[in-house]
Amino acid sequence: MSTAQKEKFKIKDLPSLIVETYKAWDEANPWRLSAVVAYYAVLSLPALLIIIINIIGSIWGTEIVQGQLTNEISAALGKDAASSIETIISQTQNKEENLISTIIGIGTLLFGATGVFYQLKISLNEIWKIKPNPNASFWKLVTDRARSFAFILVIGFLLLISFIITAGISALNNYIQKVFPEILIYIAYILDFALSIGIITVLFALMFRYLPDAKIRWKTVWKGAFITAILFVIGKSLLGYYFGEANPGSTYGAAGTIVLILLWVSYSCLILFFGAEFTYIYAKRYGHTILPSKIAVKDTNN
């Protein structure tokens, strides 16, 4: 067994891991990758939101779910952008169509909603130096889309859990406010941060494990997903503050909402790809090499 394989992670290794990750991340041209995903996110967003609203709404209530999502979008992109997206969703859901149009519409929604995850898969493959096997059949494309749709269901499930836990935290806060009003704000902040970290860590772990055409150990996945989740939550707060104060979409008038979505997704993907690069560097340093799956090969040119 090699020295690299015997080496174990220590906290003191973190700075060198971060530096090595940054160098590899910069070489991978993350700006191009994030721009591609952001473009597909704009096309996918209405369909993605409609599917999630209908899935979770069947359990939690459509109006409640739509209201919760609107609040989240408002916090991230601002009230104007949230209002525009809410209008798009309402107009799409209120259309009266015949059976054929409905079937075509559902197919379009599914194809559109999976587009952003399909592009994320391609980007993660590139960062992890993996490419599709040229001999793979047409069914690989079908499988990729099905896998992407599975992630929509995963997001829906995690959002449902988030809503339930948030409701519980809100009830707990009401009780705490009566007994210990002075520490409520601190408790609420800590619980919200912990909730965000936990749910986003699970999402990134599943994404790193199942979205790319790769074989990776859970031990490596959880460390990479946790680091990515922390960076993502911090980045989300900073982006929310930046969009709220600078309002970069105002310059573009009616297209402002689209620009904000492009910027938010692009910046978020930069963080995600940094986390993916960290996971790759961690795996390589500690002997948990990320290998291509049966339908992929190692990209020797990358």
Q: Encode the helix/strand succession as letters.
A: HHHHHHEHHEHHEE
How far apart, in Å, are the first and last alpha carbons? 26 Å
General form = globular
Number of helices: 10
Q: What is the β-strand count? A: 4
Helix content: over 70%
Class from helix and strand fractions: mainly alpha
* Rg, Cα atoms, Å: 21 Å
Beta percentage is under 5%
For the biggest sheet, the summary is: 2 strands, antiparallel
Low-confidence stretches: 1-5
Arithmetic mean pLDDT: 78
Strand order of the largest sheet: 1-4
What does this structure look like?
The protein is mostly helical and 302 residues long. Helix content is 78%, strand content 3%. The protein has 10 helices and 4 strands. The protein has helices at residues 3-6, 14-27, 30-60, 62-77, 79-93, 99-127, 138-179, 184-210, 218-246, 256-285, and strands at residues 130-132, 214-215, 291-292, 296-298. The strands form 2 sheets. It has a two-stranded antiparallel ribbon with strand order 1-4. The protein has a two-stranded antiparallel sheet with strand order 2-3. The longest helix is centred in the middle third of the chain and has 42 residues, at 138-179. The chain starts with a helix and ends with a strand. The model is unreliable at 1-5 (pLDDT under 50).
Could you give the topology of this structure?
Layout: H1 3-6, H2 14-27, H3 30-60, H4 62-77, H5 79-93, H6 99-127, E1 130-132, H7 138-179, H8 184-210, E2 214-215, H9 218-246, H10 256-285, E3 291-292, E4 296-298
Antiparallel strand pairs: 1-4, 2-3
Helix pairs in contact: 2-10, 3-4, 3-5, 3-6, 3-7, 3-10, 4-5, 5-10, 6-7, 7-8, 8-9, 9-10
